[in-house]
Amino acid sequence: MGKTKEHFKAIRDTIVEGHKAGKGYKTLFKLLGLPVSTIGSIIQKWKANGATVNLPQPRQPFKVFSRAEARLVRTVKHATL
């Protein structure tokens, strides 16, 4: 997955206020210079959560990947036989 850029809270709030005022995505694009898809995703996130703050991850990220886990299990099984 590609790297994403976090936008300032003031910019996200400006997008939401513009949307509330009835401005369209393309109008906000011309005003702020952000991609239309970014503007749309910020508005969708605001509609879903009711806020423009960045939420934490829902869980702790994996420390052992599935391939490494399978290798670890295989090593333990082989060592105990």
TrEMBL record:
Where do the coiled-coil regions begin and end?
none
Q: The Sleeping Beauty transposase HTH domain covers which part of the protein?
A: 1-52
Under the heading Gene3D superfamilies, the entry gives: Winged helix-like DNA-binding domain superfamily/Winged helix DNA-binding domain
Domain of life, source organism? Eukaryota
**Pfam families attached to this UniProt entry:** HTH_SB
Spell out the InterPro entries in the cross-references. Homeodomain-like_sf, HTH_SB, WH-like_DNA-bd_sf
Q: What is this protein called?
A: Sleeping Beauty transposase HTH domain-containing protein
Source species of the chain: Astyanax mexicanus (Blind cave fish)
Lineage of source species: Eukaryota, Metazoa, Chordata, Craniata, Vertebrata
